[in-house]
Amino acid sequence: MSRSACLIFNPVAGQGDPEQDLAIIRALLEPEIDLDVYHTTAEVAADKLAELAVKRGVEAIIVSGGDGTLSAAATAVVGTDIPFGIISRGTANAFATALKIPDTIDAACQTILQGRTRYVDTAYCNHHPMVLLAGIGFEAETVEMTDRDAKKRLGVMAYILAGLQTLRNLQSFQVQIETEDKIISTTASAVTVANAAPPSSVLAQGPAGIIYDDGLLDLTIVAPESKAGAIAATFHLLQTASSGSPVKRDDIGYLRGKQFKINTSPPQKVVLDGEIIGTTPIEVNCVPAGLKIFVPFDQAVSSTEKLEGLPNLMVESKQNSKIQE
Ligand SMILES: Nc1ncnc2c1ncn2[C@@H]1O[C@H](COP(=O)(O)OP(=O)(O)OP(=O)(O)O)[C@@H](O)[C@H]1O
């Protein structure tokens, strides 16, 4: 057998039968990959298991669980250059969707077997590694209201019900956002800094498309003046995200940058990749190409460079001499 990997498996994630899920994963992967399987427990989380795997110098790390498990494991793999395989078995599967990885066990395993990898950006938020997004305000309140029991019973509906409940008590706050070249002050109900985001993360969808390998973060400010305005703004974000056009409402703003320092008055809860990490202030810094993930063959890899066609082009490698004309 030529390939090996550490498989980190959360036995309580999602609504499926974990024993059956693991049997399917093993049946699909083990003919080609020598798997070393570790289960997460209530005490030993996926980040600890991934950290130990990195220390052992494994060839690849494959993680199977919900968004919490995938994000936690990814934090230990950021910056290591160890390929990261994603087998999503959660409620929302935002992690896989944001990174355009299939979210069925079968297709996710095929993606890993194909062995194609690409680099994606990550970020640090107050020194915590971040793959998807940091949400201030509305999103953090919604996540806090959605418990594991509700998710088991209701699935994604649990988030929607919690969202509606939060909307009923919609709070706005003063926010100050410092970028590399400006300081912005406004009133908002939600501020979201996204490295990557699935379409379902509506509050992150200010710009037309979030690019996860451009070395930049996308910040969206949602500042409705009433509950009716909040519903209209959310609907507008849904529409513009699906049509790929930028937002056009006065109560929604967005900008891109390599880093953001954000403070609010009063302090607001912060959710980072699905987990509450504390309250504002936060500082978020992009880490270009921080994570190497297995991706499907049909995923278009956007080019990071285009030089061909330029007049009198000559490109020289710094090690060798001229390599392209
Ligand atoms: N063996 C276990 N027993 C109890 N809890 C566990 C165990 N393994 C992991 N956990 C807990 O599972 C949580 C992570 O769950 P995860 O997010 O992967 O699944 P989910 O909640 O079903 O999915 P989603 O986040 O997509 O809704 C962590 O809080 C972790 O402490």
From TrEMBL:
One cellular-component annotation, GO: cytosol
PANTHER family assigned to the protein according to its UniProt record, in alphabetical order: METHYLGLYOXAL SYNTHASE (PTHR30492:SF0)
GO molecular function terms attached to this record: ATP binding; kinase activity; methylglyoxal synthase activity
GO BP annotation list: methylglyoxal biosynthetic process; phospholipid biosynthetic process
Domain of life: Bacteria
Organism (species): Anabaenopsis elenkinii CCIBt3563
Name of a matching Pfam family: DAGK_cat
Signal peptide extent: none
Gene3D superfamilies: 2.60.200.40, Probable inorganic polyphosphate/atp-NAD kinase, domain 1
Name of the protein: YegS/Rv2252/BmrU family lipid kinase
Transmembrane parts of this sequence: none
